[in-house]
Structures are given as C-alpha cells and as structure tokens.
UniProtKB/TrEMBL annotation:
Identification of the protein by name: E-selectin
Primary subcellular site in the record, as a coarse category: membrane
Annotated ranges, domain EGF-like: 157-192
Signal peptide per UniProt: none
An example molecular function term from Gene Ontology annotations: metal ion binding
Cysteines paired by S-S bonds: 161-171, 182-191, 229-256
Highest taxon of source: Eukaryota
C-alpha cells in the first residue's frame, strides 16, 4: 500500500514530500484558504489503469486539465526527471476513431499546443492513453499518446469542492481557488442568499386581501403574492405576481376598483341625487318629485355587488293632467272616494295601466 504524505505548507508555492511514495503540489492561496484543488504524484510507475485506481484511493482522481494555464502550472510543480520523465494524465479513448475525452467530466479540451510535434500518432495502433513530458527539454509540458499498459508515474488531484461548498449553486474549482456559480436568484460567496424584491405591504393593496408565500426568504426569489378583491370590487391587473431572479416583481401591485352600475340619468319632472358622486358599489341614489307631480316607484335605489341597481327607477306623473283623464273616463267617481283610493299605490298602478302609460322598472 502506498502511503500519502501530509504536512503543513508554507506561504510560498512549493512541493511537499514527506514520504518517498507521493508528493502534494500546493499554491500560495491554498495555504491560506485551503480552497482549490491540489495535485499529487506517485514516486513509482504503473500502467494507466493502476495509476487511476491509485489516484482514486489516495486523492480524488487522475488529473484533469482544462486550460493551458492549468497545464503550465501543473508542469511547473512536478519534479524534473532525467530518466523516464513521463506522467499519466486523465485523457483517454477506447478506439482509434474516437475523440480524446477527459475522465470525470467528459470534456474534449486539448488546447492548441498541447501535443508534442507529430503527436498523437497512434504509432502502435492501440495508443489510447496520454502521458505528459516533465523534463528540461523542448517538449516539456507536451503530450504524447501511449499504450495504456506501459508504466508511468501517476499525477492526481484532490478536489476541495463538495456537496456543502455551495448552498444553491455549483462549485467550480480552479488552481488555488474555488468559486460558487450560483443558480439564478441566488448570490453570496456560497450562494446562500436569495435575491430580494421590494417589500409589499397590505396597506399598499386596498379593498382586498393579499396572501404571500416565501419559500426562500421574506419577499425573496420565488416569493409569490396572490390578490383578491373584497365583495363589490373588481381587480385591475395581475391576480398573482412573483419575485424573479433579478430581484424584481413580475408585475405591479394590482388595484381593486368598485363595481359600477349603469348610470342613472336625471329624470323628467324629478330630481336625482347620489351619495359620493359616482354611481358605483354601495352608492345610494334618491329620487324626488318636482312640484305638481306624482312619483310612482322606489324613491331610493342602491348599487349592488354585481353592478345592478336594487330596483327600477321611478316615473313621475303630472297630477292635474291625470286627474282630468280619470274623471273623463270615470265621471261618476265621487271626489271623496277618489281621495281615499288614490292614496293606495296599487290603485295608482291600476290607474296608470288603464290610461296606457308606460314606465320602467
């Protein structure tokens, strides 16, 4: 079993090797923050499969290179070797017609100047693994395809990212640092804070009820507010709004406006007055006669919750004219009897009906 070296690193970039079998490669910012991946390598050679197994046991996995900067940094930290200066890296394929692919993330990055001259050449038809040269010659840091059964040193990495690194995001690891790439709607070093929207107050929504839910924090990303108007009012605007990923509500607070009833015109031979001026829900309108006229119907109507008046508007009759008409048709009717019966509304309606007078209810 190969042991793994351990020890405290200094503030300058250096290679620690407390045991002859493996070394850690760390950078200055890692010494202070213990963030970002670290590299390690074996002190004995092995084939590619064994090298990866050793990396997975001793570290996280065989090294994966994603940029020329990482390639150059790795080479600068590995020891020069005059004899067999070759290290396995984690890029491979299983068939000559396949694309070179990095283990773990399936990336196909190879850079513009990664390969040594005339490489990869698949010289033996089964060169499906890759080694990196680490020496003092011209091809230092270059790659070469090799048969996977050959023996090379293993170079590995140890990841600092884990499931707890970022609360609502993905941990991205680079040389000497880790960064949380936050999901939309979250921010902070660990993506721990949801974007906040302006606070909504119930007092901002009159004549109705506002009901909000806050899954990630008060008035924060994905908070939703629903709006319902009181009886007799209608909603103008969206009935539901949501706090989006940029900290803005998807719409403005809606408005509840009173339901309107059909307008009542000023009657002929009478007067109309309404409370509040507008003929909307809960408005009460009162009718009065002009002198010398008789009102038939309700003197007061109210605008209801559905926008309908509580009753028909009344009509107004000229009293002298219809008295004359009445005595023309009923000359035998004595004034005393007429006065008593005229005070009865049912009689008035019968009278109007007999005279073929139309009025609205």
């Amino acid at each position: 079993m190969m042991s793994k070296c351990a020890g405290q690193i200094s503030l300058t970039q250096q290679r620690l090797c407390n045991y002859p079998t493996v070394c850690f490669l760390l950078g200055i910012s890692l010494a202070e923050t213990t963030s970002g991946w670290t590299y390690g390598h074996s002190e004995t050679t092995m084939n590619w499969t064994m090298a990866r197994q050793w990396c997975q046991t001793s570290f996280t996995d065989m090294v994966v290179i994603q940029s020329q900067e990482e390639n150059d940094y790795l080479v600068s930290q590995l020891p020069n070797r005059k004899k067999s200066p070759y290290y396995w890296i984690g890029i491979t394929k299983t068939h000559k017609n396949e694309t070179w692919t990095w283990i773990g993330n399936n990336s196909t990055w190879i850079g513009e100047h990664s390969w040594a001259p005339n490489e990869p050449n698949n010289n033996h038809s089964t060169e499906f693994c890759v080694e990196i040269y680490v020496n003092s010659y011209a091809n230092r840091g270059k790659w070469n395809d090799e048969k996977c059964a050959n023996s090379k040193y293993a170079v590995c990495y140890h990841a600092q990212c884990n499931s707890a690194s970022c609360e609502r995001g993905r941990c991205q690891e680079t040389i000497n640092s880790t960064t949380c790439l936050c999901e939309p709607g979250f921010k902070g070093d660990r993506c721990e804070t949801a974007e906040q929207c302006p606070v909504l107050n119930q007092t901002d929504f009159r004549s109705g009820r506002m009901n909000c839910s806050h899954p990630t924090g008060l008035h924060s990303y994905n908070s939703t507010c629903e709006f319902r108007c009181d009886e007799g009012y209608k909603l103008i605007g969206e009935d539901q709004i949501r706090c989006n990923h940029s900290g803005q509500w998807t719409a403005s607070i809606p408005v509840c406006t009173a339901v309107e009833c059909p307008p009542l015109p000023q009657p002929e031979n009478g007067y109309l007055s309404c409370s509040g001026g507008n003929q909307v829900f809960n408005t009460t309108c009162q009718f009065k006669c002009q002198l010398g006229h008789l009102m038939i119907g309700l003197s007061t109507v109210t605008c209801g919750v559905s926008g309908v008046w509580s009753g028909p508007r009344p009509i107004f009759l000229v009293i002298f004219y219809y008295f004359t008409k009445f005595f023309h048709f009923f000359p035998h009717f004595i004034p005393g009897t007429f006065a008593v019966r005229f005070s009865n509304l049912l009689f008035i309606r019968k009278l109007v009906s007999s005279l073929s007078i139309n009025y609205e209810f």
